[in-house]
Amino acid sequence: MPKITFIGAGSTVFAKNLMGDIWSYPELADATICLMDIDPKRLKQSEQVAHHIINTLGISPTVKTTTDRREALTNADYVVCMIQVGGYEPATVIDFEIPKKYGLRQTIADTLGIGGIMRGLRTIPVLLDILKDMEELCPEALFINYVNPMCINQWAMSRASSIKTVGLCHSVPGTAHELSHDIGVPYEDINYVVAGINHMAFYLKFEDRNTGDDLYPLIHKVYDEGRVPDTNRVRYEMFKKLGYFVTESSEHFSEYTPWFIKNSHPELIEEFNIPIEEYIERCKAGIIAWELLEEVEQTGRIPTEEEIMEALKDVHPMDMIKRGKVRTIQSLNEIKRSVEYGSLIIHSMETGQPKTIYGNVANHGIIDNLPSGCSVEVPCLVDANGIQPVHIGKIPPHLAALMQTNINVQSLTVEAALTGKRDHIYHAAMLDPHTGAELTLDQIWSMVDELIEAHGDYLPEYH
């Protein structure tokens, strides 16, 4: 049976979903899962969740816990990474508060923009340390990465290490489920092909699985009839302008481009329902939810929806976030398969049963009109031979051009991380579509200096 190591296993709910997914396969019911985290308290909570899953499923795998990363990696077959370097405080707060001083507003700030740049710079060194340990302790293991900024991290790892790695995100199936609801076609009846970069990949094909009919006219109909969900106005607007639907949420996409969050047009925030600083509120809700999970651990009682909503009352009124936390906490006793690809990969590689997943891999002859080596998100066949990306060829030129504006920032951030040259950080910020549209060059330079200083030991020395 394989040894599957979780790095950052204190992300209890995410770890719970992946453990449930893995152990739900009969062929993996005896798999050893090693939980590793630097926070013993959170690690203990994830261990208790693991034993709850085992008891619910009636299986007998081995669960190990450790705060020693090298111990966790020794002889691992799969390493699943879900870390957040710097946490909510101080790192995430820094990423929002300093840019806000300069008038630069963000929504999520974990993938692109100045927040994504800084998150990448503090995360890459840690990821490379993990891969260095793997080269010594488990050189044949597959590194399954769930850590943002996905493209920046994947690109850096593929350049700096020989370890096999794939980056995973649930935005492809997640958006397909949303569109299924919008157009009234069951998800199981939809066939699609997606390609691009993580969070900016597009459905090149979206059709009825049974008839082969193109379903894009039904998505156009949602827009034309004024049925666009309030949380998805940005994406539907871009769909009308581009002709293809993007895989990541409107709040994310609004900060990957220069068109929606603009001080010169403040009315756009309301028009497109853009949730400024949403990630800050998500983090606050997450902290409260973790405290509630501690109470569940101590009392064994899961709080009611009313009690959870009362605990979340001071979170900025984002009903979607609050309802999500209610579902998360109340699902602790449920074991049902998530949309995450991690368990599918492990199952296919162990059994040889082929599956198709969407993975983030280095672009070596996959998408012809995107730069060689950059990280692309494409369909991949998985079986006993591992992960085999599908050749896409050329994507529509206007989509490639839009992605290139993000790839420019990713490339320079990776250069900064791998060379230690400070100038690349300034240049990455200059070329970021949202930052460049809002700030002057002097403001960008000054903001970057402040951010580097505020990060302190979370960043290596830049020269």
Molecular structure report:
By secondary structure, this protein is α/β, with parallel strands linked by helices. The protein has a domain at 3-88 and 108-167: 3-Layer(aba) Sandwich (Rossmann fold), CATH 3.40.50. It contains 19 helices and eleven strands. It has helices at residues 12-24, 40-57, 69-73, 87-101, 113-137, 150-160, 171-183, 216-224, 233-242, 250-253, 267-271, 278-299, 305-311, 319-330, 342-351, 397-419, 423-431, 433-438, 441-455; strands at residues 3-7, 32-36, 63-66, 78-81, 142-145, 164-167, 190-197, 200-208, 355-362, 375-383, 386-389. The strands form three sheets. Strands 3-2-1-4-5-6 form a six-stranded parallel β-sheet, sandwiched between helices. Strand 1, helix 1 and strand 2 (32-36) form a beta-alpha-beta unit. Helix 17 (423-431) packs across helix 19. It is globular, with a radius of gyration of 22 Å. The termini are far apart.
